[in-house]
Design brief:
By secondary structure, the chain is an alpha/beta fold. 39% of the residues lie in helices and 16% in strands. The strands form 2 sheets. The protein has a 7-stranded parallel sheet, with helices on one face. Strand 11, helix 13 (345-350) and strand 12 (356-359) form a beta-alpha-beta unit. It is globular and about 70 Å long.
Length: 427
């Protein structure tokens, strides 16, 4: 049977770090097992806010990699303030009240002059480059992966010009994503975003999303087929880890300002005050990019001395930290707009064999996954007593050396199983 070719247009690719790179890195790893040749188109000189050189070793040797130069305004903005530029480009937007004039100006420029995003200047060169490649290599199917959602505009133009079969993959929503409202959009910019979103949703042959809520939102905007393929976990070669001697609550990944779980800090502060044994054993571990607002809040609740901030680590080290921590924290913004967000790290958490404490908005899609797989407990931001009781019960099990979970039904979220779903859709 002849192998099918699939052109994948993505911005995030090793050595990019963070969750955005994992989805298609893993699809590409397993697509050849289903008789599909992955051809990956990426920028030659990207400005990645997070870099993880170790991920280069995970790129499949069966993938064909195409590169083309990109111009990004972030490259120029970095001359003004490299630190602020990196934070904004990675989604860490400072609290509105604490934004400097430069940060406000950068957000306004990002939201109003670069629509849909700052990678828009890659669209026309990519269309020109890929049109030639597609025709010369008889490719009939393409995938665009966003954000950045400007990549969907590449797919839109290729669809119009060549009538290729186009799958638009939304790792996150477009106009309903949490930070969209923080971009200080003019009415014109807001309308333009929605117009482009509508064009993409109504031109692609199939829309792929990562959650049921996003599917429902998009169904109000298009009649095109929408398929849910979540993120997942891969089989990781990790030596068995010795559990932390402390009762460690670990948050692994970017900790944005709006994800500040004050209810958690309040509960932990109370337990430290009320229980000397808890105070002796407790440790808060932060691993990844942490916003200053989160650190300030931790200090406000007198938890700084209990906090170990390891900063950003490689993906392989993050996996090790997951498996040695006593309890894993999963925090999402308390907003109706974030119900659809299923953090990619959830699936790695689920196979770490460590209990998860998850906090997010009511009716979150990831709450259902945690509950159905028996991998932890989900809380809304106003369930203080229930959260406190759960932490106490986990602490008691920790003291007895019996703190563990017994997951069920995880296989459906393996990267290979998810790639099989994708392969059936494509072929």
């Amino acid at each position: 049977m002849k192998q099918k070719k699939l052109l994948i247009i993505t911005y995030y690719w090793p050595p990019a770090g963070g969750p955005g790179v994992q989805r298609w890195l893993k699809f590409v790893k397993y697509l050849p097992d289903f008789n599909i040749q992955p051809i990956v188109y990426i920028p030659e000189n990207p400005t990645y806010p997070i870099v993880d050189e170790d991920l280069i070793n995970e790129v499949s040797d069966k993938a064909i990699i195409l590169k083309n130069k990109i111009f990004e305004p972030y490259q120029l903005a970095g001359f003004l303030s490299k630190n602020k530029t990196k934070k904004i480009s990675s989604g860490i937007i400072p609290n509105k009240k604490k934004q400097s004039f430069l940060e406000k100006a950068m957000l306004w420029i990002r939201g109003n002059l670069f629509i849909p995003d700052a990678r828009k200047f890659w669209v026309n060169p990519s269309v020109k480059f890929l049109s030639k490649y597609i025709q010369e290599n008889n490719i009939d199917s393409i995938v665009t992966s966003g954000p950045p959602h400007s990549l969907h505009l590449i797919g839109l133009k290729l669809k119009q010009d060549l009538n290729v079969k186009w799958f638009a993959d939304f790792r996150d929503p477009w106009t309903t994503i949490g930070y969209h409202k923080q971009l200080k959009l003019s009415s014109y910019a807001d309308k333009k975003h929605k117009q482009l979103e509508s064009e993409v949703l109504n031109s692609a042959d199939t829309i792929i999303v990562t959650s049921k809520t996003t599917k429902t939102e998009f169904q109000a905007l298009t009649t095109k087929p929408i398929v849910v393929i979540t993120n997942g976990y891969d089989v990781e070669k990790v030596d068995k880890q010795t559990l932390d001697s402390k009762f460690s609550l670990a948050h692994i990944g970017s900790f944005l300002s709006d994800r500040n779980p004050k209810v958690l800090w309040e509960v932990v502060q109370e337990l430290i005050t009320e229980n000397t044994l808890f105070a002796k054993h407790f440790q808060l571990k932060l691993i990844g990019k942490i916003s200053q607002e989160i650190l300030d809040s931790i200090a406000q609740y007198n938890l700084t001395n209990y906090c170990t901030n390891l900063g950003y680590v490689s993906h392989s080290e993050a996996i090790q930290q997951q498996r040695k921590s006593q309890v894993l924290l999963l925090i999402e913004i308390d907003s109706p707009e974030t119900k659809s967000i299923i953090p990619g790290k959830l699936f790695e958490y689920m196979v770490s064999e460590r209990p998860i404490i998850a906090i997010g908005p009511k009716d979150s899609d990831f709450a259902e996954i945690i509950t159905s797989t028996n991998t932890g407990v989900f809380f809304t931001y106003n369930e203080k007593e229930r959260l406190k009781n759960t932490i106490v019960s986990y602490f008691e099990l920790y003291l007895e050396k019996k703190l563990q979970v017994h997951p069920v039904g995880l296989q459906q979220y393996s990267r290979k199983s998810l790639t099989e779903q994708l392969s059936k859709l494509i072929t």
